[in-house]
Design brief:
Layout (H helix, E strand, L loop, with lengths): L1 E6 L2 H12 L5 E6 L9 E2 L8 H10 L4 E4 L2 H6 L1 H7 L4 E2 L3 H8 L1 H10 L7 E4 L2 H8 L6 E5 L8 E4 L2 H13 L10 E5 L5 E9 L3 E9 L2 E3 L3 E4 L4 E4 L6 H10 L1 H10 L5 E11 L2 E8 L6 H5 L7 H10 L13 E9 L24 E5 L2 E3 L5 E3 L3 E9 L2 H12 L7 E2 L12
Parallel strand pairs: 1-2, 1-4, 2-3, 4-5
Antiparallel strand pairs: 6-9, 7-8, 7-9, 10-11, 10-15, 11-14, 12-13, 14-17, 15-16, 17-21, 17-22, 18-21, 19-20
The structure holds adenosine monophosphate and glycine.
């Protein structure tokens, strides 16, 4: 098969490596890709993921057998629909289904209607009504822009003043653009957060091994929210009891709810769960693989990813047994200092060859590119996802941190406590 991956981050590099392992994949393409992905796939850096016409034309020109759309923006925008309309076999939810991530108001209403456990909430499209509602609401409270906002559209407010300022920021000043035309005001809940990825074929759902992200920029969960500074898998917080609860009330219920709404979901559903004292609650849905969750999950999957993808598209996922290695993985993101605010890029990355021919170590590229001299340079906030597998989380963590020293670039920044939560369990 010839396969085209749409996207260009660490998640896409991990997907590409999994596909490369498949005996069924003859050639990989990626738009726009990055310098790491370019080592195993033909990349076209000039095509952006939102340039739908160009992506469709490229897929046709290369006569690919399958397109895998990985990021949220093109999924929510309907790239899958456009590719399918052009007769191209595509993995990922169509626009009608991707609304599960594209509108938080939609997903909250869905959960309410189908009794899927989530935090209590109200939706607003009138800022005055939102402000009036806050007057009697308990603090802290959580404000969420309805649409996609690069993972930044969530404000946790401790006081009424902060919350009022937040409504203004989201709905009036349009800090997150049109994502703030509507908003969700939600009860503040507490507990460890876990990420659960799943494959879905419209009717059936198969759960992957669990993972845990570290969203804040600095150690001890301080600093600003980021796209994710590191992950580990599995997470000991995801116990058999939690799994049983989620299987009973959340996973299949979500797939059935989407089908009942005429929005059959095919692709990956990412359940962002909070394990509260009252049981697991869905914090959010994503309609795609997580980044950097994918980096620690797919490297532990035993199945041929192409078999699973086919089963999702063909509606035969019930015939697949997902299998994961009985080990652990840790991913430490090496970022550009200053991320997620301002940072410099264009610095040469050295030492990448240290990862060659090492089975348990991966250096997933996120923000990297070739400069005009052919050197690999930094090209984003999150630069690399250094990942290692080990028999236990402790071992994987020690190996991942050791490997972060194998690569160098100016302004290299990382958290030093990825996977530390495991010491608490
Ligand atoms: P989301 O983009 O919905 O995952 O929200 C980003 C982060 O905000 C989550 O990972 C949580 O840490 C936090 N968060 C979201 N909703 C709530 C809530 N209802 N109560 C407490 N924290 C929340
Ligand atoms: N790591 C969280 C996400 O992909 O949204």
């Amino acid at each position: 098969m010839k396969v085209l991956i749409v996207g260009g981050g660490g998640r896409e590099h991990a997907i590409a490596i999994s596909m490369k392992k498949s005996k069924r994949v003859e050639k990989l393409y990626c738009v726009p890709g990055n310098a790491g992905i370019a080592q195993i796939a033909e990349c076209e850096p000039s095509i952006g993921v939102m340039e739908f016409d160009k992506v469709v034309a490229y897929a046709k020109e290369k006569e690919v057998d399958l397109v895998f759309v990985a990021p949220d923006d093109p999924l929510v925008g309907g790239l899958v629909d456009e590719l399918q309309a052009a007769g191209i076999r595509t993995f990922g939810p169509n626009k009608k289904a991707a609304i599960l991530e594209g509108s938080k108001a939609f997903s909250k209403d869905l959960m309410k209607k189908y009794n899927i456990p989530t935090a209590a909430y109200e939706n607003f499209d009138d800022p005055n009504k939102a402000l009036a509602y806050l007057e009697t609401a308990p603090m802290p409270i959580v404000l969420k822009a309805d649409g996609l906002a690069l993972g930044k559209g969530v404000l946790i407010c401790n006081t009424l003043e902060e919350a009022k300022a937040g409504v203004k920021e989201i709905m009036l000043d349009k800090h997150f653009g049109s994502a703030g035309n509507r908003m969700v005001i939600e009860e503040f809940i507490t507990g460890p957060e876990v990420s659960v990825l799943s494959f879905v074929d419209g009717k059936n759902i198969k759960i992957m091994t669990s993972a845990q992200d570290h969203k804040r920029a600095k150690d001890n969960d301080e600093g600003l929210n980021t796209g994710g500074m590191g992950t580990f898998s599995p997470t000991p917080f995801y116990t058999a009891e939690v799994d049983e609860f989620c299987k009973k009330y959340i996973y299949q219920a979500t797939v059935d709810a989407m089908a009942a709404e005429g929005r059959e979901f095919k692709g990956v559903i990412f359940f962002g769960l909070m394990l509260t004292p009252n049981g697991p609650r869905v914090l959010e849905y994503n309609a795609r693989f997580g980044d950097p969750e994918t980096q620690v999950v797919l490297c532990r999957m035993k199945n041929d990813i192409m078999d699973v993808i086919d089963a999702c598209i063909d509606g035969t996922l019930d015939q697949i047994d997902l299998e994961f290695e009985d080990n652990a993985a840790v991913c430490v993101v090496l970022a550009s200092d200053g991320y997620p605010e301002s940072y410099e890029k264009g610095f040469e990355i050295t030492g990448l060859e240290n990862f060659d021919d090492k089975d348990d170590y991966f250096c997933f590229h996120a923000g990297s590119k070739f400069d005009d001299k052919g050197r690999i340079v930094t090209n984003g906030g999150r630069v690399l996802g250094v990942t290692a597998k080990g028999a236990t989380l402790k071992e994987a963590r020690a190996k991942a941190y050791e490997a972060t020293e194998w690569v160098s670039f100016a302004n290299k920044y990382k958290r030093n406590d990825i996977g530390k939560a495991i010491d608490l369990v």
